[in-house]
């Protein structure tokens, strides 16, 4: 029997669009090979930036495409740490993000999770101007909890009152396979927060492509950090990804991934794996999915 690693959120091989992405790579070269195989601007392949900007209703100049979303997090974190900002993160927090903050020497305050994710009440009275609240509000890693609509609004109100910055990480939101989606913090704030996302879960982790959406005033500072780390992004991969996104392949692939999640989730429920550490929400009927944050089934974790 093949070894199954639980160390990372790796998709099964059957969920990887191997043939389709290979076709897209060839088509990208045929369409724009001279650009795809050349050095590119620090913010990423311009047509991909434009596609991302259209999905989120923002100017493409605010989008920076990175080699995986974690790199985007590292660039933004470095900027804020150099500016003297404190970071408030969830406890438990995504381990890679927390590791980056610690290596940067950041002042980090961990906030315990409530039933539906980040405990907004615990933040009240602690935030001050310049602080950064880093959160994965939808299917939080590692707990799987999803912040309710009410608490999303409360978090944004609190940040606005104190002058803190909300940094939303959303790699899993598009993977929801049941229940009603909850608006992103970025959408609820009308684009005033920092937004981070990735194509690792929706397409494939091996393409190493994520993106940041930044306030206008931060773009030049982050692009300077990009240029201090490499000469050019992986323009060829980004061009192939754009072909995948715009050729009618992306939506069917999303459905395949969602179906894969929906198939595995009931098996985990029946096995009881990780149930002792999951929030007590399954089976509740006293609130809608949007009010209580939805089903927590993207992640499953246990203690040994």
Q: Can you offer a commentary on this structure?
A:
The protein has 304 residues and is an alpha/beta fold. It has a single domain (13-292), classed as Type I PLP-dependent aspartate aminotransferase-like (Major domain) (Aspartate Aminotransferase, domain 2, 3-Layer(aba) Sandwich). The protein contains eleven helices and eight strands. The protein has helices at residues 18-36, 46-56, 69-82, 95-103, 120-123, 149-162, 185-188, 216-227, 235-246, 250-271, 289-292, and strands at residues 63-66, 86-91, 107-114, 117-118, 132-135, 165-169, 194-198, 210-213. It has an eight-stranded mixed sheet, with helices on both faces. It starts with 17 loop residues before the first helix and ends in a 12-residue tail after the last helix.
| Tally of alpha and pi helices | 11
Q: In the CATH classification, which architecture applies?
A: 3-Layer(aba) Sandwich
Q: Classify the fold: give the CATH topology.
A: Aspartate Aminotransferase, domain 2
Q: What structural class do you assign from the helix and strand content?
A: alpha/beta
Low-confidence stretches: 273-296
- According to CATH, what is the class? Alpha Beta
Briefly characterize the structure.
The protein is α/β, with parallel strands linked by helices.
Which features characterize this protein?
304 residues; alpha/beta; Aspartate Aminotransferase, domain 2; 8-stranded mixed beta sheet; 41% helix
Topology of this protein?
Layout: H1 18-36, H2 46-56, E1 63-66, H3 69-82, E2 86-91, H4 95-103, E3 107-114, E4 117-118, H5 120-123, E5 132-135, H6 149-162, E6 165-169, H7 185-188, E7 194-198, E8 210-213, H8 216-227, H9 235-246, H10 250-271, H11 289-292
Parallel strand pairs: 2-3, 2-5, 5-6, 6-7
Antiparallel strand pairs: 1-8, 3-4, 7-8
Helix pairs in contact: 1-9, 3-4
